[in-house]
Amino acid sequence: MQLKAPAIVLAARPHGENAVILRALTREAGMVAAYVAGGQGRRLRPVVIPGNSVEADIRARSASQLPFGKVELMNSRAPWLNEPLPAAAILWVTALTASTLPERNPYPSLYDALGGLLDAICHAPSARGWAPALLSYEVLLLRELGYGGMKPEAGDLPETLAALNALGPALERYLLAERHGDAMAARGRLLERLARIA
Description:
It is a single chain. By secondary structure, the chain is α+β, with helices and mostly antiparallel strands. The chain folds into 2 domains: 2-75, CATH 2.40.50.140; 78-197, de novo design (two linked rop proteins), CATH 1.20.1440. It has helices spanning 84-100, 108-123, 127-144, 157-175, 183-197, and strands at 2-15, 19-26, 30-36, 53-59, 68-75. Strands 3-2-1-4-5 form a 5-stranded antiparallel β-sheet. The termini are far apart.
C-alpha cells in the first residue's frame, strides 16, 4: 500500500513510548490506520488531534502489515477543542466515523460531508448553523453503510435536536451495537449541551 493524500484525523491511540496508531479518513482509500513514529512527541502531538486535516503519506510493504505513516498539518481544528460545544461535536463525529467505517473502503461522499461538517462546526456563529449538518451527516453515514430509509427533517434548533434524539437508537442499534468504547456517551454529552441552548 502506498498512499499520499489529504486526510481527516479520526483517532490517535498511543503506542509504545512515543508513537501513535493513527486512524484517518481519506477520499481515495477510505479509513486507513497507520503507525506514526513520534506521534506523542512535541512536534506531532498537535497534528494528530481528531478533526485536523493533514497530508498523509502512508506506506506498507505488504497488505498484512500495519502501514507506516507520516503526516503534515494542513488545517488545525485544535482551537475549537477549547470550546465545550464545538469540542463535543468534533469528538463525537470523529469517534462515530472511526468506530463504524471499515478500513480501506472508499466513501468519498462521507469524506466530503465530514470535512464540510467540521468546517461548519468551527466557523458557524452558533450551533444553530451546524446542528442540521450534524443530523444530515449521521443520516448519510447510516445510508452509506446500508441502513438507509431514515430522513428526519431538520428545522430550527429544537426540531433538529428532536430529530437527533430520534436518530440515536438507530445509530446505537445498527452502527455501534458491537463496538466497545463510549462513542454514544460522547453523543449524549453533545446533545445535553445542545439542549441547554435550544
